[in-house]
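Hey, resending since the last one bounced:
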Amino acid sequence: MAILKRMKRWLFSADALRHVVLLAVMTLVIVEPAYAQDLSGLQKMLDNIVKALTGGIGRSIAILGVVGLGLMMIIGRLNWIVFIMILAGIAIVFSAAAIVDGMGAGG
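The structure tokens again:
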């Protein structure tokens, strides 16, 4: 039990924090990056998300949003700020690729 108490006291002391920080700094300084990293899996996943949001799924969500706006307009509960936000959101989602390409980040 005495050993556990000493270990607990050391773990929560300033010395332990100094050792952890020193170890983290040494790790960051010594470790070399892997130059053979392949991020194609991540890129494919992100491309699939973009295709889903700007493809058929995104189109269906946008249609539901416009239908909801129409129903709100019919029953007289249309908030014009919500109306503008939904239409602006639809425009931004479907023109996001053109916006990014226009900024010069297109691949």
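Helices lie at 2-11, 14-30, 40-54, 56-74, 80-102.

Sorry for the duplicate.
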